[in-house]
Specification:
Layout (H helix, E strand, L loop, with lengths): L9 H9 L8 H5 L16 H9 L3 E2 L15 E2 L2
Antiparallel strand pairs: 1-2
Length: 80
């Protein structure tokens, strides 16, 4: 599970992630070379860090992934 935000527009951000050929910009772009998107959930009433913080209580995070601008150590979580 990856938690991210789209401050410049959710539609364009999701469209970027769904493209096969793209310029790699975010951590998730590199992950998607080996992984696939199963589901996208859009939440408009919570902030990225707040959601990631909730996941840290229940799931193991991958340290340093997707969190370069966050006080948390990860925004990518392993969910069995």
């Amino acid at each position: 599970m990856y938690v991210g935000s789209a401050k410049k527009g959710i539609k364009s951000r999701i469209s970027h992630h769904l493209r096969i050929k793209k310029k790699k910009h975010w951590h998730i772009d590199y992950l998607l070379e080996k992984a696939k998107i199963i589901k996208i959930i859009i939440l408009c009433d919570k902030k990225e860090v707040e959601i990631a913080k909730l996941f840290t209580k229940k799931f193991k995070g991958i340290k340093g992934f997707g969190s370069s601008d966050s006080p948390l150590s990860s925004h990518l979580f392993k969910i069995e």
